[in-house]
Specification:
This protein has 447 residues and is of the alpha/beta class. The chain is 39% helix and 14% strand. It has 13 helices and 14 strands. The strands form 4 sheets. Strands 1-2-5-8-9-10-11-14 form an 8-stranded parallel β-barrel, surrounded by 6 helices. A two-stranded antiparallel sheet has the order 3-4. Strands 6-7 form a two-stranded antiparallel sheet. The radius of gyration is 21 Å and the shape is globular. The mean pLDDT is 96. It binds phosphoenolpyruvate and cobalt (II) ion. Cobalt (II) ion binds next to loops.
Length: 447
């Protein structure tokens, strides 16, 4: 496969879910510009993540992949980025404290701007318009002008990703993610809640341990592990023209890397083993993932393994199962069995979000906290029964005090969804629900 591969060889195959750009000449201009812009991430960083994922596959680390369903061109401030980081850092502390395992942190961030859609058109009040496909393609506002696909948005997506990454690098390496700051990651609206109080207890215990070690004469100032974290970036590699333009040859190894993010995944709607998305990712050396829905057959899973990880490289391939709380118990064992029968190792990750979406009586697209929890619990139980490793979770969340998912310790009711429903695409857990979930997962890891 890879001997005939080039960054643009996907063009000879069928690419689903690509935008219908009305101005082809502008697309060419934009891609020409993107092809010479600096890479967003570096090959060495992607290799480091691959090594970290290899230890996740062995059960020596746990993966937390989280962020918005769709990032927004509008919700783009330093505060919003800092707050997302806070939630991820808080959840990681809770998980590490419970499990004693390092947590590999990956954001759906700095590039998650393109959405696959089940329907090409959306209807409202008798008007049919093209569906919203993410801010890299069109606007979510429901009018003809906003919904027109505009290739210039690809450049804006690149620029916002670069600015977001710049801030992430500053926050994670410049003192903000220092364990001595652990108190400040508790946001105001979380701090007053039961989960916020529980977090505070852990924070105090960690601070006490740090003081104890310092008193014993251990020099805590020199170990970067206490003062910095790695937050890797990821998004769905959906818009292949964009991904192609950001694909560069590593000067050290000569290998191709998609330098738009460290970690790229293929969505449930574009995972055809013969399709363009799988073909494209066969040739890049980043760690890659595929979303696995309940209709996935053993034959498809086998094809995906053989195409995406022909060299059986540790950490290369992740399967993100998104089967739904009601189907996971039935479907997951067969999927795991297929991989075991081939004597293969992958990273198994649970996305408890996308198999549990429904429209509430109020008309809002939502998810129940309990269904999310049930899918994760069942994922852990099945892996334990099969003797395989439940490697991590893939979540849609936000740091804001939104009301998009039902339930949680401080229960959100259907009648409250209207209060603060701000999702561009799928409903997200708010910061309290996210922390709540982290404590629950922590208990599963402990058990
Ligand atoms: C998503 O992750 O937002 C998504 C569309 O997921 P899936 O491809 O699993 O439906
Ligand atoms: Co989503």
């Amino acid at each position: 496969m890879t001997d005939t591969w080039a960054p643009d060889s996907w063009r000879a195959t069928t690419a689903l879910q690509q935008p219908q750009w009305p101005e082809p000449e502008v697309v060419e201009e934009v891609l020409k510009e993107l092809r010479v812009l600096p890479p967003l991430v570096f090959a060495g960083e992607a290799r480091r993540l691959k090594t970290a994922l290899a230890s996740v596959a062995k059960g020596d680390a746990f993966l937390l992949q989280a962020g918005d369903c769709a990032e927004s061109f509008r919700d783009f401030t330093a505060d919003a980025i800092r707050d997302k980081l806070k939630v991820i850092l808080q959840m990681a502390v809770v998980l590490t404290y419970a499990s004693g395992l390092p947590v590999v942190k990956v954001g759906r961030i700095a590039g998650q701007f393109a959405k696959p859609r089940s329907r090409n058109e959306e209807s409202m009040d008798g008007l049919d318009l093209p569906s919203f496909r993410g801010h890299a393609v069109n606007d979510n506002i429901f009018d003809a002008d906003s919904r027109r696909a505009d290739p210039r948005r690809l450049l804006r997506a690149y620029n916002q990703s670069a600015a977001t990454l710049n801030l992430i690098r500053a926050f994670t390496k410049g003192g903000y993610a220092d364990l001595n700051q652990i108190h400040t990651w508790n946001q105001e609206f979380v701090a007053g809640s039961r989960q916020g109080q529980r977090y505070l207890q852990i924070a105090r215990q960690i601070e006490r341990s740090l003081r104890f070690m310092a008193a014993c004469g251990i020099d805590l100032g020199t170990d970067s592990a206490l003062h910095e974290v790695d937050l890797y970036t990821s998004h769905e590699a959906l818009l292949l023209e964009f991904e192609e333009a950001l694909t560069r040859q590593d000067s050290l190894t000569g290998d191709w890397y998609d330098c738009s993010a460290h970690f790229l995944w293929i969505g449930e709607r574009t995972r055809d083993p013969e399709g363009a998305h799988v073909h494209f990712l066969t040739g890049v050396h980043n760690p890659v993932a595929v979303k696995i829905g309940p209709k996935t057959t053993p034959a498809e899973l086998t094809e995906l393994l053989e195409r995406l990880d022909p060299d059986r490289e540790p950490g290369r391939l992740t399967f993100i199962t998104r089967l739904g709380a009601s189907e996971v118990e039935d479907k997951l064992p067969k999927l795991i069995q297929t991989v075991k029968d081939l004597n293969r190792e992958v990273v198994w990750v649970c996305d408890p979000m996308h198999g549990n979406t429904f429209t509430a009586d109020s008309g809002y697209k939502t998810r129940r906290f309990d269904a999310i929890l049930t899918e994760i619990k069942t994922f852990f139980v099945v892996h334990q029964q099969e003797g395989t490793v439940p490697g991590g979770v893939h979540l849609e969340l936000t740091a804001q005090d939104v009301t998009e998912c039902l339930g949680g310790a401080e229960e959100i009711l259907d009648s409250q969804l209207v209060h603060r429903y701000e999702a561009l695409c799928d409903p997200r857990l708010n910061a309290r629900q996210s922390l709540d979930l982290a404590f629950e997962i922590g208990e599963m890891l402990q058990a």
